[in-house]
């Protein structure tokens, strides 16, 4: 998916996501020609809410 699509899913500004990519904080980023693509599976696996929900369930 494009950076714009990923930013919409994550509900962050496009520039914020580009900065996170530059800092190496976003997994699954692939350069295709001049554009960047983010693998959907990597985005879902690394979403902050996923780990938090599983941690909450473990505590109960």
How is the topology of this model organized?
Blueprint: H1 3-10, H2 14-22, E1 29-32, E2 35-38, H3 40-45, H4 48-59
Antiparallel strand pairs: 1-2
Helix pairs in contact: 1-2
Domain Helix-turn-helix: 1-44
GO molecular function, one term: DNA binding
Organism: Corallococcus exiguus
Q: Count the domains.
A: 1
Radius of gyration: 13 Å
Q: In percent terms, what proportion of residues is strand?
A: 5-15%
End-to-end Cα distance, whole Å, is 36 Å
Estimate percent helicity: 55-70%
Quick one: biggest sheet? 2 strands, antiparallel
Number of strands: 2
Mean pLDDT: 83
Provide a descriptive summary of the structure in words.
- The protein has one domain (3-46).
- 7% of the residues are buried.
- The chain is globular, with a radius of gyration of 13 Å.
- The protein has four helices and two strands, in the order H-H-E-E-H-H.
- The longest helix has 12 residues, at 48-59.
- The model has no long low-confidence stretch (mean pLDDT 83).
- It has a two-stranded antiparallel sheet.
- Helix 1 packs across helix 2 (14-22).
- With 60 residues, it is α+β, with helices and mostly antiparallel strands.
């Amino acid at each position: 998916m494009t950076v714009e699509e990923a930013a919409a899913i994550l509900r962050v500004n496009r520039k914020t996501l580009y900065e996170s990519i530059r800092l190496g904080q976003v997994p699954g980023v692939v350069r295709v020609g001049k554009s960047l693509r983010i693998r959907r599976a990597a985005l879902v696996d690394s979403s902050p809410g996923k780990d938090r929900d599983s941690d909450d369930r473990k505590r109960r």
